[in-house]
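Re: the request from the purification team.
They wanted to know what the chain is likely to look like in 3D before they choose a buffer screen. I agreed to run a prediction and write the result into the notebook, where they can find it.
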Amino acid sequence: MIVTPAKTVPALVGECVDAGVRAAVVISAGFKELGPEGAALELEIQKQLRRGSMRVIGPNCLGIMTPHTGLNATFAQDMALPGNVAFLSQSGALLTAILDWSFQEQVGFSAIVSTGSMLDVGWGDLIDYFGNDPATGSILLYMESVGDARSFLSAAREVALRKPIIVIKAGRTAAASKAARSHTGALTGSDEVFDAALRRCGVLRVSSVSDLFYMAQVLSKQPRPHGPKLMILTNAGGPGVLATDHLLSDGGELAPLSNATTESLNALLPPHWSHGNPIDILGDAGSERYSKALEIAANDPNSDGLLVILTPQGMTDPATVAEGLIAQAATHGKPVLASWMGGKTVAKGVEILNAANIPTFSYPDTAARAFTYMWKYTYNLRGLYETPSLGDAADSLELAESQAKSFLEIIRATGRTILTETESKRVMAMYGITTVDTRLAASESQAVECAEAIGFPVALKLNSETITHKTDVGGVKLNLQNREDVVRAFREIEKSVAEKFAANDFLGVSVQPMVKLDGYELILGSSVDPQFGPILLFGSGGQLVEVYGDRALALPPLNSTLAVRMMEQTKIYRALQGVRGRPAVDMPGLESALIRFSRLVIEQRWIKEIDINPLVATPERVIALDARIVLQDPSVAEDQLPRSAIRPYPLRYVSPWQGKNGMQALIRPIRPEDEPGMVKFHETLSDRSVYLRFFHVEKLSSRVAHANLLRKCCIDYDREMALVAERQTFQGAAPEILGVGRLTQKPGAREAEVAVLVADPYQRCGLGSELFGRLIQIGREEKLQRITATILPENMGMRILATRQGFQVMQDEDLSAIHVALDLQEVDA
């Protein structure tokens, strides 16, 4: 624990590193929060840390507390109660307030961590740690800044599948990013981007501190809903309406009553019951009517959850109704929430429900909000465990990446940062995004020539590097039928620009054929967020794009599943699927366009902003009518270019291989859609092969369970690299997986563990050695410092592979395992 003046801290940290101290908490303030002098002190601390492996929490923090061990390393006076919630906060003042509140509410913690400035240990490190902490059931975060976005998202995606991560972040109403030279740049704001990032990694965001703890409780007690439809049962109309208002405004839905439910309720309830959802069983309902109505409502197949509201009435016993609710809650696999409204009268019922792990709320609107949060949490998690398909965009597109990069470098050499519409469309076309034929014309005569070459009717649009919204200056002329129309349109555009702007704002026009708009105008764009890097935007397009504000944001890269999820978040999505007699648009083509566009964004890092507006989707095709690309300033160094917060598929590690016997295979990083192939791969393994790899014989059914293979196929390439070797057995069949090699990095360290497993029919043909060697080379390219492996003594094949690659061998004293290690590079001093 370091609690000394800021100027003394770097030297003290250095002494700790020399003494072999493993960790420190720096409570001292006076660092970057004070300006350049304090920031320089933080750089000195980081320089000392690079000399060893010590980790630091802080500086400028309250400290850490672990109630289960009795450690209070904070300057808060009282020890928190023990519990299963890890609370991590950037605000020390908020943390002390919550600590004080927790005693009154009897809320316990597995740990409390004040993160401070996060000079070293950040959100990713803490999420990793508490994700593996058996005493922690939920992880709650109060955030003011994200810090290392890639580390945060990487850890959250890994841990969210096991434990709820719930976030409240300050700054929700912060001003959007400064207006940029594209629609997308003007539309994206940091808070919207943060929401998109949390959706991508399965994290739930709430809007109040009370909701933070409500949801930790609810998610630990009840199953997650499979959908947004809630059934509400009440003995008072007003509370039911209040719950409905909040449910619908927060994105939930009322479950429609099935015919069977309606008939059963008609037979049970008085004639004046509500005959719909909410089910109002009326104020004179006794405990027996309540219990029977509960049974009917809970059995309705249309609902994803049940909220039961009780107001104290003379003929209703809250405790008896609570007992009846418990009986129903345990049998249907749906979340059940309760709002027992009142004080002393309902206290016994509340006690009974809480003891049975049914969350209770004093007010029904709070309960309805909790259900919508549960559904949002489910929706976010589905993005992690649904097996996606890359569709027809799964081809490598390596040629497109190289061609586009060369093309952009040529433009950058001229010093320009804005591409013409023709140049922008050329980049889109390289990635397989269909664009309309567009030709540039600097004069009237050239415009006429282009129009005649394309064929009438045509459209003329202003060509300018400075004017974004062409329609605002009369810069778009449509449906021009002949050369006279083209000349007149050219002159009108030129005159309009001259009256409002400088002469160099008019560079001529672009000429393109008229496209029949028998579909929908969309926008597809990207801009760079300061924290999360490139961000994608999709929504309703056209001239009124800012007015409609119908948009969704997402982090690249996309696959088919993620592309659909992005579209689902817009209002226009329903229309795209067909509505009121209009046919659906080319949805596979639209998915492919989004996937290819996301590839373009993450691969061409010189691009700062892109707009395709409009992107027209019809039943027959998806075509870009207008496009605009803005490049990063030439002064930006290549190593300073923004990178995507989620690492894309590493194409660089895809290459063919030929074995000793002439057998050919493709070795590439694993993908989520490899799960079916992995099932067949495990079917080829003998018990001995399984034992040598996993140190015990695990049943096939366990090895190929979806939850197990999900974690092995849907990996974070920043944390783990898994290579599969596959070969095409015959045309039209799915490739056969022959072997798998895995390099798993240890959290918070530049060290990884390597393992290789080859199907029994393909052992002893050099494949294991090839996978092993490639993983070592990947470790070098990923700048790992050390690779280790643990091998059973009888696994002679792996022992020989390790020895050939130069691994140092160490054996356990009890001879149960052999540990090998290979140092790849010296620690950077």
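For the purification team: Residues 174-181, 387-396 have pLDDT under 50 and may be disordered.
Please add any questions underneath this entry.
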